[in-house]
Specification:
The protein is mostly beta strands. Helices cover 2% and strands 52% of the residues. The strands form seven sheets. Strands 1-2-30-29-28 form a five-stranded antiparallel beta sheet, with no helix packed on it. Strands 23, 24, 25, 26 and 27 form a five-stranded antiparallel beta sheet that branches. A hairpin with a 4-residue loop joins strand 29 and strand 30. The longest helix is centred in the N-terminal third of the chain and has 7 residues. The radius of gyration is 18 Å and the shape is globular. The N terminus is likely disordered.
Length: 327
């Protein structure tokens, strides 16, 4: 089976690296924003797995999900634990998102048969959902229980609350990520470096010319971020896309972004191209982008927080990092 696209190729390999449990000391960053690295400390948390973790999302500080290679983990506010789910034991889950504690989606693909995977959690158990699609799924995001998007190779799937279908206006691209501020403001990014917008009716407004993009996230319609290979971080201010970072002392591939405002944004990356690499966390305080850690960690792919002072990152070897206020 051929896996298309940078992130899909990179994340398809099961990571068999043991997580190293060490304190991660942040460096001073920017002007020392009150919610930034100078007041938060990153530390490693036991995950109970050595599998590669690719995505993280939650409803609160005590209800968080992390997914990856043949793995679904849940955090209850005290510890992480493995959760059973149906299907083969060779599923590479690429994204997790939901609307509530009883409405959570996890998506990816099966490395054995090459088919897609969509799982749904109803608050009690995970179950397999049939979509009729044959594409490999790379992420999931939505605005409500009846407006959920799943990017895939050459297709964008949509859930209307009752059924899944391929959006007829989908542009023929290898989609890597999706994010939405509303049902009429949806952004998608692709392997070919395209940024494409959905206005509630169709996908259009294509912006080409960027490097391969792996993820997109925003806090509002006028604060959207796209990330990708070779130090790529792009920002949309409501009218145009600009480059925040394109060069650096170390070449790294950014996979995820999360924050609470235009002056509080985190980015995770890995120096690896087709396998495990060194992970990095960068922080943007609205004026300066800086490396938020001085210690070495395995490659990182997903980031999410319940608040500006409770942030999580996941990656290779079952790595889970947690940022909390400095004591």
């Amino acid at each position: 089976m051929t896996l298309y696209g940078g992130r899909m190729k990179l994340r398809a390999l099961p990571a068999l690296i043991a997580a190293v449990v060490i304190p991660l000391i942040p460096t001073a960053c920017g002007s020392g924003d009150s919610t930034g690295p100078t007041t938060l400390v990153w530390s490693s948390v036991q995950s109970g797995t050595t599998a590669r973790l690719t995505s993280i999302w939650g409803t609160s500080a005590s209800d968080i999900w992390a997914v990856g290679y043949n793995t679904i983990l849940h955090y209850d506010g005290t510890s992480w634990s493995s959760v059973s789910f149906p299907g083969t034991r060779t599923q590479s889950l690429q994204g997790v998102w939901g609307t509530s504690a009883s409405d959570v989606w996890a998506v990816g693909y099966d490395l054995t048969n090459g088919g897609p995977t969509i799982l749904h959690y109803n608050g009690t158990i995970w179950s397999t959902v049939s979509t009729g699609a044959t594409e490999l799924f790379t992420g999931v995001w939505g605005t409500s229980g009846s407006d959920v998007w799943v990017p895939a190779y050459r297709a964008m799937l949509h859930y209307n609350g009752a059924t899944w279908s391929t959006d007829p206006s989908t542009i023929y691209e290898s989609w890597e990520g999706v994010w939405a501020s509303s049902a009429s403001d949806v952004w998608g990014v692709t392997v070919r470096g395209a940024i494409i917008h959905y206005d509630g009716t169709s996908w259009s407004g294509i912006s080409y010319g960027w490097p391969t993009l792996f993820g997109v996230w925003g806090s509002s319609a006028s604060n959207v971020w796209a990330v990708g290979v070779n130090n790529t971080i792009l920002h949309y201010n409501g009218s145009s896309w600009t480059t925040l970072l394109s060069t650096g002392p170390v070449t790294t591939n950014f996979f995820g972004a999360w924050g609470t405002s235009p002056s509080d944004v985190w980015f995770v990356s890995s120096t690896g191209t087709n396998g495990p690499g060194d992970g990095m966390i960068h922080y943007y305080n609205g004026a300066t982008l800086s490396n938020a850690m001085s210690a070495t960690t395995p490659g990182l792919y997903g980031i999410w927080g319940s608040s500006a002072t409770d942030v999580w990152a996941v990656g290779d070897g079952g790595t889970i990092l947690h940022a909390t206020p400095r004591r």
